[in-house]
Amino acid sequence: MGQEVNLASEANADLDVKCPTDKRSFGAQLMRTMILTRESSLRRLRKNGLSEENKADFSASDPTETEDLPPDVPLIPRHGSTVSVSIARYPANIEEEDRVRINTEFASAIRGILTEAYGRPPNRADVNEYVILRSGQGCSSCVCVTKPPTGHPCTQFTALWIAARLVVWALASERCDVRAGLDGGMVQTIFDAYNLPDVKGEAIESAARIMDCALPGQVLANWETFVKPLESPANQRTLSSRLFYRMDPVRHDIVVGRGVRAIVQSVIGQVTSHSYALGGGGGHSSSFGNLEPPEAKWYLSLNPSELSKDAETGIKVKVPPRELLQRHKRVAFVGITHDKLAKVFRQVLEEDPDHTWDRILLFFLSDEKMEWAADSIVSHAPARRLSVLNPNGFDVIKEKNVEELTMQEAETILYGTSVKGAQDADTQQSEKIQTNKAALIKSKAGARAELEELLTGKVRELRFLSYDRPFYCASYWDWDEWGGFIHVSPMIWGADPKTCPAMNYHWIGVDPGDDYVSYQDGLSSLLRVAHPF
Predict the structure, then answer these.
(1) Which of 191, 93, 102 is nearest to 139 (CA)?
(2) Alpha-carbon distance 518 to 192, whole Å?
(3) Strand, coil or helix: what is 255?
(4) Do the beta carbons of residue 183 and residue 222 sit within 8 Å?
(5) 3-state SS class at 147
(6) What is the pLDDT of residue 260?
(7) pLDDT tens-digit readout, 380-413
(8) Between 270 and 52, where is the model more confident?
(9) Residue 140 and residue 129: Cα distance in Å, rounded?
(10) What is the count of structural domains for the chain?
(11) Is residue 56 domain-shared with residue 171, that is, in the same domain?
(12) What CATH number corresponds to the domain at position 276?
């Protein structure tokens, strides 16, 4: 037994010499894990004692037949503090090769900071103290801390320290900016496809979403699940002299997902660090943090269209949300009848009778094209055409007296309906389409009159237009400036315009994007070809 323990120690030392941690192959790490597993088993058996039978079984076992689990892998849920960091900004006109180089240095900085904190390099198979979760792009990473290193009072402090160090690293490199998000919660150990331990938990994803709202150089922390535990009296007694911080007293309510919000605070301070961008060096104190308001991402809290039921038909129809009407001053609607718009405008004016708009453009589908819309909302009969042959139809006819069968009866057996039945169905369909067309035209006229009465005096420029090119339905919200929003519902011939799929385009960057610009051009084209209505 002693010989095997010595063998494990020698192999461990040998790997440290021959395979430096930053270049160690996966095979070397796996071999080390297996040896350490064997060593842990031997240590437990030596401590607890062995029966003669167990000794014989253990001596006869194959040294490679070790447990699948690395030593002391925690399998019960535990608390973890997660720091999610990413490179928020690269130099302008950066080459792809330089981008990859910065991403590599970013990963090396994370490895160096963790090595400094815990006294040893990261080990992918060891999840006792922290786990590094990388993204596919290489420009972001999460570190979930489950046990603080010596000198740190809690996992929240360690996560904040890592965030501060990485922000300072980016400032020292002068080639990129880093932002960070912090959150805490319970995590569970799982095993990936390589049978290596990993962790999962809501706080890990939440930290990434909070980070996504941070500005370059900013550190954002969840007030409820991170800041409050960090600032508890017990954790404040033993703060490290290598990190001084303070929380911005202003708390920000941000949207971190569809229907998900978080109260966050910005963190600023000073941290003593090494210049990992330059390959190490002496420690020096640097400031970190950004107290500007984080990106709110308010649009994630809005549904592009609310759903309400038509009282007469029971069909769910799309209604633009009043929140957008309250927020934007220039609005354009490209639709069919707009019979639901007046209700939403009225809701806005009831809440604020003095509310006004700068420009509202309302595009109605022309009477000539209204038949297409009417046809789209008619339910087609399943046996409208003689197109599907019943394979058993001939056998059924053979069993009957063919001479007594009429042509209509034979067609019904073979196709499920007769020619006359299909013709009758077509006639009924056509009549229903014409009825719906007349109803839509009447609804359009009523909607126009109601909207004009409601909005006159509330809009500087109010235009009612008719168009005959039904490529899509859309709503435009301050579409010609940063912060604009375009909601598009494609209209396909034969599709139901009330239930067609929706797409959303936001102008949130310097460049609005090709798709956004194409729909801007589409509106400009409609303005050129539309007629007053």
Answers:
(1) 102
(2) 43
(3) strand
(4) yes
(5) coil
(6) 77
(7) 433 333 344 455 555 555 555 555 555 556 556 5
(8) 270
(9) 20
(10) 3
(11) no
(12) 3.30.70.1230
